[in-house]
Amino acid sequence: MTVITLNAKICMSHLLLKDTFDRFSFLEGEITTFNKFTIDGFLHKNFFDEEPEYTYSYWRQVREFCLSIIKGKRTPLNFKIILSLAPENFEDFLKKHQITTFHSEEISGLYLNFHYDGAVLQCITGISMKTFYMDKTLEKEWDSYAEEFFKRSGIEQELL
Hints:
By secondary structure, the chain is of the alpha+beta class. It contains 4 helices and 8 strands. Strands 1, 2, 3, 4, 5, 6, 7 and 8 form an 8-stranded antiparallel sheet that branches. The radius of gyration is 16 Å and the shape is globular. It starts with a strand and ends with a strand.
């Protein structure tokens, strides 16, 4: 787990106006403006004519909705947005980072937890496994990946 303080203006542009995070799964969000809006990213499969192959919405599917809540003359009082690398990308992540001690089926999530308190925007990285492991290789690689992802995307950061 790493806590990364982000440049709010730049990151919000990437989060809400660009496709930077579109390939991530959206797990949940909570945005407080004049009301508190809570969004659950879990897909209700019985809503669809054809059952989706994934469990959670992609960020690209809810980004515009979140933007419509946030946009305006005033910044939100606070928000949290929880994204995860989409499960279909777990195997590629493991291969790319040469992690052979884990299997993609054992991973519950590789998370980016965005939190804005009205002044500071932070991203807390994290992982969740279906079974307990003492090995922290995956966690360290995910933390490094997140830092590099922000840097590559041009999102200024400060590690805490």
